[in-house]
Amino acid sequence: MPSATLTIDDLYRLAVPGDPRLRPDGGAVAYVLVTADREADENRSEIWLAAPGEEPRRLTRGPRDSCPRWSPDGRTLAFLRPVDGRPQVHLLPMDGGEPRVLTAAALGAGAPVWSPDGGRIAYAGPYAEGEIDPHAPVVADRLGYKADGAGLLRGITTQLFVADVATGETRRITSGDLHAGEPSWSPDGRRLAFTASLDDDRDLVVSAAAYAVDASGGKPERLTGEELVCTGVWWLGGRLVVSALDAARPMGHTRLYELGPGGPRLLCEIDRNVMTGAPGYPGAPPRLHGDEIVFCARDGGFTHLYRLDGTKLIGGEQVVAGVSAAAGRIAYVAATPYSAGDVMLLDGDGAVTTLAAYEPEGVRLFPAKARTFTVADGTTVEGFVLRDETRTGPGPLLLDVHGGPHNAWAPVFDGVHLYHQVLAARGWTVLMVNPRGSDGYGEAFYTAVHRAWGVADTGDLLGPIDTLIEEGVADPDRLAVTGYSYGGYMSCWLTTRTDRFKAAIPGGCVSDLTSSSGTSDLGHLLAVHEIGERPAGLSPLTYADRVRTPTLLLHGEADDRCPVGQAEQWFAALRARRVPVRMVRYPGASHLFIINGRPSHRTDYNERIVTWLEQWIPTAGRPGSQS
User: What is the CATH T-level fold of the domain 372-616, as seen in this structure?
Assistant: First the structure.
C-alpha cells in the first residue's frame, strides 16, 4: 500500500478521462483526457484511444482538443480544436495522416454530429450578425442577456449548422433569437431535432420545446406542447426521445418521454432523476444499446446506467459519466473511491474490462464511508464520512455542503475537492451529507427544500454532526463548515443559526436572495420556482448580526450564477461587525472555476481552505493561531 498521502500539488499529476466514444464496430474507444499544465496555467485536453488488450495511445496532442465523434464507418474521427482561438471541427483519418480542418465558423463550432450516411456534420454553434464590438453599449429588453461562463451575450445566439464533409461548405439552417441545443439526425438524414425556447416570455418562465427542422433549412416544427420543458432530444433508431421536466413542477425530476402521434409517452416510471450530463452533474444522454434504450439516473449519490424497465445495467459504488454504445458493447467512464475516472467497457455477456485506469500512482487515498443518520424529525439522511480510520479519539470535523441545492455527494474521488484528502491525512474528519433537496432519493425528497432553503435542511446537516460527537469521532470544540454555490449559501446560513462552527469557508456563495434574483443569470427563475415570496427571510444577510464565526470567502470575479456581489455583501456585513473575515476573488473565474478553471486558481482554492482551517482550529501537532 502506498504510504504517501495526496497533496494539493498533486492536481498537476491527475489525469481525468471523459466523453468516451465507442467506435461503431465496438473495437476501440476514443476519449478526452484532461490534465493541468503548470507552466501554461491551463487545463490541457487531448484525445486518446483505448482498445481491449492494448495500451492506451494518444491520438492528438492538444492542447485543447475535445468532443471526439466517429464517422458511421469508423474510418474518420471528428473532433474540436481551436483555430485562432475559436473551436473548429477537424477530421482525423484513422488510416494515417494529419487532421483536416472542416469548419471556419466566425465564432467557433460546437460538438460535431455525423449524419447517418457520413456525408455531413451538424453542430450547434454561436452566431451573431456582423462583428462583435466588445466596447459597444449592451442593450437588454429582456432577462437572459448574460450566461455564466460566457458573460454578456451581446446579441450572440446559438444556431444549427450543417457542413459538407467533402467540401467543408457550411450552411446555417436556423435563424432568429434562439439558443438551439445539440442536434440529432433523423434516421433518413432529412431532418434535425433540437431543443429551444421560442416563447416570447421565455426569460420569465421555464419553457423549452423539441423542434425538428429540414437539414437544408426552413421553419422549425414544434414537436412538444406546453406540458413539457424539454432539455434534450434524440432520434434513437426510429424513436424520438426527449428528456423533460413537467411544466407544472419545473424544479422536479427530469424524465424520458417518447414522442408519437398520441403525444409524449413516459418511458420509465422509476422515482429517480434522469442525468444527461453536465459539469458537476455526471451522466450521459440516453443511448440505443441493441434494440433497447439505456439512460443514466441518480440513485443515492451515485449516477448509474438503467434500462427502461428500471433495472440497472451498470451499478455499484461508482459514478458513471459519459456513455457510448455500439456493436452490443457499452463504453463509459467510472469514478470510484480511488479514481476520478477510469475508461470501462461492458460486453454483451456482462463482462467488464478496464481499458484505461487513472488512479493517482503512489498515493494513498482515504475512502469515504456511507452512513445513514436519523435527524430530529425522524427523517433518515445519507452521509459520507472521510477520515483516517487508524486515528482514534475525537478530532476536528469539517462539514462540507454540496451545491444545487439539488446536487448530491458520492463517496468517490473527484479530483476537485483535494482538500478532503489533505485534511484526512492531518487528522480531520470530513462529513458530506445529502440533506433534503439532494438528488438520488426520490422526487419528494428532491423538492423538500422548495421555498424553504436553509429552513428545511439545517437539521439534516447539524444532526449528523451531533451523532459523530456522541460516537467520539468529532470534537464539539473543533467544528468547521464549508461548501460551494448552494453549499456557500448554507455556509453563511448555518453561521447565522449557531456559533458551534469555529471557522467557515463559503465558496461561490449567495448571501442575499433579493439582490441575487436580479443579478444572477438564473436569478428570476430561481426566485419564482425555488425561493418564493420570502427572499429576505431566507437570506443569510438578514441575520448577519448573529454571526461570530471567522469566515473566508472564495469567489470568482466573473461568476454570473452567484455574482461576486454576494460575497461582497457578506464580507461588508461581517467586517462592519468586526467578525474576522477575508475575501479572495479570482480574476476571470466563472462559477465553475473550481472544476474547470485555471489550475493555479484551483490549487489556491484548495490551499486556502486548509490554511484557514488550521489558522482557527488546532489539530494534533498543529496548534491553531487565533490571531
Answer: Rossmann fold (3.40.50)
